[in-house]
Amino acid sequence: MTSQFVTLTCSVCGLEAEHELRYTGRLLHSTVCQACGHIVRHEQRDLQSAYLRDLEHRLVSKPTRLARAAVRDPVGFVRGLPRALLRQPLKLAADLWTLVRR
Fold first, then answer.
1. What is the pLDDT of residue 26?
2. Is 57 exposed, middle or buried (0-12, 13-18, 19+ CB in 10 A)?
3. Which of 16, 28, 33, 53 could form a disulfide with 10 if both were Cys (CB 3.0 to 4.6 A apart)?
4. Who contacts 69 (Cβ-Cβ below 8 Å, separation ≥6)?
5. Which pairs count as long-range contacts for 54-60, CB under 8 Å and 24+ apart, including other chains?
6. For 32, phi and psi rounded to 5 degrees?
7. Which one-letter DSSP state was computed for residue 74?
8. pLDDT tens string 29-61
9. Where are the alpha helices (DSSP H) in the chain?
10. pLDDT confidence of residue 95
11. Cα(75)–Cα(63) distance, rounded to whole angstroms?
């Protein structure tokens, strides 16, 4: 899970405060108000459904994205390929674990 911080107005405390946006893959998982701690989460079944649609899109578009990267920077592509091959399954497993354990 990755996080970003943005300033939003909290629907609970009414303050304009920093909120943590938590992502699973490319999907917004939850937001946390840093002023009052209020958490807004997506329903698990909605998040799982959206994640599976996003995963399908990423898998279908992967060959095109790989080809573009290879053309744009062939040496960097070949150099980074072993690391990417090791990292991707770990990222996928972490995302799926986040969805399942909710």
1. 81
2. exposed
3. 33
4. 77
5. 54/25, 54/26, 54/27, 55/25, 55/92
6. -130, 120
7. H
8. 899 999 999 999 888 788 888 888 888 898 899
9. 44-72, 74-101
10. 79
11. 18
Q: What are phi and psi of 73, to 5 degrees?
A: -150, 80
pLDDT at 99 over 80: no
Q: Structure tokens of 78?
A: 């070949």
Percent share of the chain, pLDDT over 90 = 58
What is d(CA 86, CA 69) in angstroms, rounded to the nearest whole number? 18
Euclidean distance between CA atoms 24 and 50, whole angstroms: 11
Task: Please state the domain extents for the chain.
Answer: 2-101
Question: What does the mean pLDDT of the chain come to?
Answer: 90
